[in-house]
Amino acid sequence: MARRHEVPTHLNVEDKLLLGLSVRQFTVLLAGASAAYGIWSGAPDWPAPLLYGLVAAVALTSAGLAFVRPLGRGLEEWAFALAHYRAMPKLAVWRPAEPDPADWRPAGADWAELAPRAAWTARERGTGGPR
Predict the structure, then answer these.
(1) In the chain, is it the N or the C terminus that has fewer CB atoms within a 10 Å radius of its CB?
(2) Please, how many CA atoms are within 13 Å of residue 77, restricted to the half-sphere of its CB?
(3) Is the Cβ–Cβ distance between 66 and 25 less than 8 Å?
């Protein structure tokens, strides 16, 4: 009997972790909820409108990062692409370096001394035998 193997056909689908959320979405929401709770419990003496607004801003930002995916990419990927674009130079100029004659011409050498010598035989190398 021949063995049968299932070929995966949904390779571009993220695995679901909990309540239909992917691992990335769950992690972003958990980090946002932790940050919102840290603000809520860390500043109890702040004015209520400021505290509510800050907690709501953190919660909405984390929900946006978790669920908004323009063109199939997360907002963190777009932020990285924008930062990379801003950091890269926008203009490239090519200028060939001028060669320094001292680098490629030995000092005091005559032009005849710079002529190449064929050295494929022992006789022309000036030695009696092979090297």
Answers:
(1) N
(2) 9
(3) yes
